[in-house]
Amino acid sequence: MTGTELPEGEVRPVTPASGGKPGTKSNGVRKAAAKSARTRAREFAVQALYQHLVGRNDAAAIDAFTRDLSGFHKADSVHYDALLHGCVNEAAELDALIVPLLDRKLGEISPIEHAVMWIGAYEFRHCLDVPWRVVINECIELAKEFGGTDGHKYVNGVLGGLAPQLRAAEVEADRAAGKAR
After folding, report:
1. Long-range contacts: 106-111, Cβ < 8 Å, 24+?
2. Rounded average pLDDT over 78-90
3. Which domain of life is it from (predicted)?
4. What domains sit in the chain, N to C, each tagged with a CATH number?
5. Cα–Cα distance measured from residue 44 to residue 76, given in angstroms and rounded to the nearest whole number
6. Which of 23, 44, 131, 176 could potentially form a cystine with 34 if both were Cys, beta carbons 3.0 to 4.6 Å apart?
7. Strand pairing partners for 30?
8. Torsion on CA atoms 111, 52, 76, 151, rounded to nearest 10
């Protein structure tokens, strides 16, 4: 046996890339085993909303298709339903919240980042059990996993500007406690 081989049956521990956290891939995205049912629901929802934004597909047809995808059984289907149908039904209101914070026209925003911002705005408004900082973090992770190279930075900026409008008391309490800027 040479110095690089391991005895049979022994496994070399896998360490994250430099600076990475355990349970994450080298790009910082959480590994599948470390994902909660709600995180999985958001992942399926962003894919479904992408289909809606790009293909103009009907929410019911998208829903039926998505539920047949591998791994859907591990997602929180109630949260997925709320995100997909809520975002589609409130698209105009969500866009009205997002557009003032954009530095370009909404049509120039990637459909993935658009869908992720819808999810963030929807959760700010309707999922009060999810802390605002968790909403932003989950959306950043979605943008990292599905979006363009720096799309997560854009999502972070927009949702960071939206949080004080929709979760003013919560944001202010975190600022006062030194948990947020």
Report:
1. 109/154, 110/147, 110/148, 110/151, 111/50, 111/53, 111/54
2. 97
3. Bacteria
4. 37-177 (1.10.940.10)
5. 10
6. 23
7. 24
8. 0
Q: Which amino acid is at 174?
A: D
Mean pLDDT throughout 81-102? 97
Q: Tokens representing 149?
A: 């190279």
Q: For residue 3, what are its two tokens?
A: 């110095």
Q: Position 34: which residue type?
A: A
Q: 3-state DSSP call for residue 164?
A: helix
Length of the chain as a residue count: 181
**Section 112-122 average pLDDT:** 98
Which residue from 6, 24, 61 is spatially nearest to 141, judged by alpha carbons? Answer: 24
Contact (CB, 8 A) for 126 and 90:
no
Label residue 4 left, alpha or beta by phi (over 0 means left) and psi (-120 to 50 means alpha): alpha
End-to-end CA distance of the chain: 55
